[in-house]
Design goal:
The protein has helices spanning about 35-50, 70-75, 80-85, 100-110, 165-175, 225-240, and strands spanning about 1-5, 10, 65, 90-95, 110-120, 125-135, 150-160, 180-190, 200-210, 215. It is α/β, with parallel strands linked by helices. β7 (about 150-160), α5 (about 165-175) and β8 (about 180-190) form a beta-alpha-beta unit.
């Protein structure tokens, strides 16, 4: 697949972790790699990042906070490319893809289908060995009929290990047979990927970000913050000032 980031075309092929153990679908890689493997990782990151990335400062808890405005700006920045791709329908991966998909809908003017896929287990706070399909759409419904033989845009908030995105793409191909598939994410983490997108899948990322834990505003309460506290942390992270998480 080819990756489209701010108009630049680069390979979007994923690669496996180098001797690391995945603990979460959004956890920084802590593996100790040999020097040649480190260089390979750096080359992979460079290929994913032709336009550079914004430098943000993590909060005191090591996490990076993003505001609604920042998420909206990242998705709106993709609208011209996505309109040119001409999707018939969006498939939002819940729960992180729901709000970004709704932001895109205003400009793309296509309906949204929801699916729920789970890699990270909230109860055990660990990653599953494989992605679990919790919910899928009904292809016989009104909007569901817009998938088979049509152009489908998958939307999620973050491309971390790429395992969830790969699962969603392959499930769509095997179950619903769309004519074309593209993936759009708010943030692409610059790291080696566990999952690989099949050939022919177009890839759009609103922004490349460092391999840190991202905190999104719809999850503010999960981190013990009010939305106002979360937005303040996001402003501090963006300004490069070390943000106090508590």
């Amino acid at each position: 697949p080819r990756s489209r980031l701010k108009g630049a075309f680069v390979p979007a092929q994923g690669c496996s972790f180098l001797g690391s153990t995945m603990v979460s679908d959004q956890r920084p890689d802590t593996a100790k790699c040999a020097a040649d493997e480190d260089r390979a990782d750096e080359d992979q990151v460079a290929k994913q990042n032709p336009a550079g990335k914004k430098q943000r400062c993590a909060a005191s808890d090591g996490k990076v906070y993003f505001s609604y405005a920042q998420v909206h700006a990242a998705m709106s920045g993709l609208s011209e490319q996505l309109l040119a791709w001409k999707p018939d329908v969006m498939v939002a991966i819940g729960g992180g893809g729901f709000i970004p998909a709704r932001m895109l809908r205003t400009e793309l003017k296509v309906p949204i289908l929801a699916v729920s896929l789970e890699l990270y287990d909230d109860e055990t706070k660990t990653a599953r060995m494989k992605v679990v399909k919790k919910q899928w759409f009904d292809e016989t419904s009104g909007v569901g009929k817009l998938v088979r033989g049509k152009r489908v845009l998958i939307v999620d908030e973050v491309d971390d290990t790429r395992a969830t995105l790969e699962y969603c793409v392959r499930e769509l191909q095997e179950t619903n047979a769309p004519a074309a598939i593209a993936v759009a994410v708010v943030h692409n983490k610059l790291k080696p990927k566990k999952g690989v997108l099949p050939e022919g899948v177009d890839y759009f990322a609103g922004e490349d970000v460092e391999n840190l834990w991202n905190c999104y505003p719809w999850d503010a309460a999960a981190y013990g913050n009010s939305i106002f506290k979360h937005e303040e942390l996001a402003r501090q992270c963006e300004s490069g000032v070390e943000a106090a998480a508590r």
